Amino acid sequence: MKDKLVGFGYSAGWKVVRALPEPVARKLFTAAADRAYKANGRGTQRLRANLRQVVGPDMPDTLVRDGLRSYARYWKEAFRLTNRTRKEYLDGFFMEPESYGWLTKAVHDGNGVVLALPHMANWDAAAAWVVSHDWRMITVAERLKPEAVYEQFLAYREALGMRVLPLTGGERSPLDVLGEHLKDGWVVPLLADRDLSRSGVEVEFFGGKTRMPAGPAILAIRTGAPIYAVELWFDDEKVQARMRPITPPTEGPLDERVKATTQQLADAFAAGIADHPQDWHMLQRLWI
Questions:
Q1: Helices (H), the chain
Q2: Which residues of 109-141 are buried (b: 16+ CB within 10 A; e: fewer)?
Q3: 202 with 288: CB under 8 angstroms?
Q4: Using one digit for the tens of pLDDT, what is the confidence trace for 14-72?
Q5: Rounded CA gap, 125 and 187, in Å?
Q6: What is the end-to-end Cα distance of the chain in Å, rounded?
Q7: What is the rounded distance in angstroms from the CA atom of residue 250 to the CA atom of residue 17?
Q8: pLDDT digit string (tens) for 187-201?
Q9: Distance between CA atoms of 28 and 31, rounded to whole angstroms?
Q10: From residue 25, how far is each of 20, 28, 57 by CA, in Å?
Q11: What is the 3-state secondary structure (H, E, C) of 58-124?
């Protein structure tokens, strides 16, 4: 019964927020972020600790407030994203020209491309932009609880035009399915700055140790598909993006090659997060 009520609450919230005028929705979500900042709950405290690891001990606490506002903006846009037209998906997102050239070439070469992303800005808007170019895209989603909530997010992301595999509980290994799609020229974006399996690759990250998923590196090494780290950030009206090329080693044991590639991703993520720390939505424990 509880799961049904939670699922109903998400569904109702989605419909209400989509119906609000944009200025009203923006004001509502900004106010919610400011309330969370003043309440200083567990998530806010964790965000503060994470941002201090990034910025250092002299971090202004206003960065935490701005981070919560950015996170609220992500949710506001996510709830309303399926209301947009294809033109709005394209107009509301900007990728730097060099990165756009790399991505276009990878798609046209037909070898697929692995895009590894940290939890920055609005990655769903990035996915909608990719699909609006008529590029085929497949990704993986964490199986949320209750199941009704997972189904809501699955339907939402599939409505944007992507194919979504469950991280766990599927008929086949997600890596096998993603690898097949890469060989057929698909775009494979994966959130990759937090390990959900507790068996990820240990990396150095902002002066500490954490674990990040091995999946992006394994896919690139297995298939030979190009791999890029992608950073996203908000400006006043758009989501902006930059890609950083990653070069997996071609020699040595597989586990060492995966570790070296994942460390490259961690370094690229760190560079992007340092440039736009307010748009890094990490409200969970990260460092070991």
A1: 2-19, 22-39, 42-55, 62-80, 86-91, 97-109, 123-131, 147-159, 174-183, 215-223, 254-275
A2: eebbbbbbbbbbbbbbbbbbbbbbeebbbbbbb
A3: yes
A4: 678 888 899 999 999 999 999 999 999 999 999 999 999 999 999 999 999 999 999 99
A5: 15
A6: 37
A7: 49
A8: 999 999 999 887 899
A9: 5
A10: 6, 5, 34
A11: CCCCHHHHHHHHHHHHHHHHHHHHHHCCHHHHHHCEEECHHHHHHHHHHHHHCCCEEEEECCECCHH
Cβ–Cβ < 8 Å for 92, 238? yes
- Report yes or no: 207 and 264 within 8 Å, Cβ to Cβ: no
Token reading at 284? 């969970």
Sorted by sequence, the CB contacts under 8 Å of residue 255 that are 6+ apart come out as: none
At 134, list the tokens: 């008529």
Q: Is the peptide bond before 146 cis (omega within 30 degrees of 0)?
A: yes
Short-list 230, 168, 155, CA closest to 196: 168
The residue type of 222 is R
Task: List CB contacts of 132: < 8 A, sequence separation 6 or more.
Answer: 86, 89, 90, 161
Residue 69 to residue 32: CA distance in whole angstroms: 8
Beta bridge partners of 88: none
Structure tokens at 187: 């775009």
Task: Give pLDDT tens digits for 68-81.
Answer: 999 999 999 988 99
